[in-house]
Amino acid sequence: MNPSPLPERATGPKNDWRAVAGTKAFAFWAFLALLYFQLALSLMPTWSDGTYYDYGWLALFVVPFFFLTRWRETDPGAAELDERLRRLAISLPIMGLVVGCLLLITLLRMAQWADSSWRPPLVFHGLIVLGLTTVLLFRIQGRSIAAYWGCAVVVLLVIPLPMKFEFSLIHWLTEGVMEFALFVNRMLGLPLASQGETIFANGIPLQVSDGCSGIRSFQSGIFAGFVLGEFLRLSLPSRLVLLLSGFGIAFLMNGCRVIYLVRHAVAHPGADLEKVHDMSGYVSLTTTFLLIAATGWLLARIDERLKESDANHLAPS
Fold first, then answer.
1. Domain that includes residue 140, residue range
2. 132 CB contacts (<8 Å, ≥6 apart)?
3. Can you tell me the distance from the alpha carbon of 219 to that of 288, in angstroms, rounded to the nearest whole number?
4. Residue 16 DSSP one-character state
5. Residues 134 and 189 in one domain
6. Environment class of 74 (CB within 10 Å of its CB; exposed 0-12, middle 13-18, buried 19+)
7. 261-310 pLDDT, tens per residue?
8. N or C, fewer C-beta in 10 Å, the chain?
9. Is residue 94 part of a domain?
10. pTM of the model
């Protein structure tokens, strides 16, 4: 008797099972990729308009990297993943939720095609995608989905704020920058007056508008601080310190920018301020990012020292 057919019959079902498991996993990854690709398409016009959200392009690389890193740490295993995906596929409530979310996203996309600058559909689109992802991951990984909170926050940071809240934030930042610039310049002996959002230096009017409010460096600094904290895997207190530092550094650098522009306008009354305005903005933004990176590195070192200290205390004598 030739025993060769027996191993073929024994290994055949196993190979078929692996093929089915791979197909289910591929379908799940493809669904998530399409879900977030549609969200990215809806946000790209906002990222491309060159105002406050152009850092959103980085999310196309940052979010998948953070997600895959967390997935490797909480991976339930091939067999368990196949079983849970099979349960999801035959669950009528889950399938109904998926279909309902897809219909809502389709309606929101139709509204976005009519007016891509309308903020509420973008916000609802992002919340629906994050909510559906949370449900699916919870059914697959249980409570370990708490590890993905950083990915969700990064997605929320690249969704534009509602117009009313954004205008209020810009107005508050503009007033803060103006008061800071007036105080420092007066302390340095430069007599200044202000009216509304205009600073008068020796009769020269200097308009402090949206571009000088610091909203761009503020939002970019918050995004950079959070992404850096997630990349360095800082502790929660260190992440909060880094976020507050990012806000403070962005405000300080933009205030120094306005101080410089005022003093340059007084020293050179006939100079073209547009070139100086743009160049000082690039310098301020670059300095903000460098200082945030330095703060993150310092906090990472502090966390590392604290972990080593705790390990030494817990080690047996």
1. 5-160
2. 35, 97, 98, 101
3. 11
4. H
5. no
6. middle
7. 777 777 776 666 666 777 777 788 888 889 999 999 999 999 888 887 76
8. C
9. yes
10. 0.78
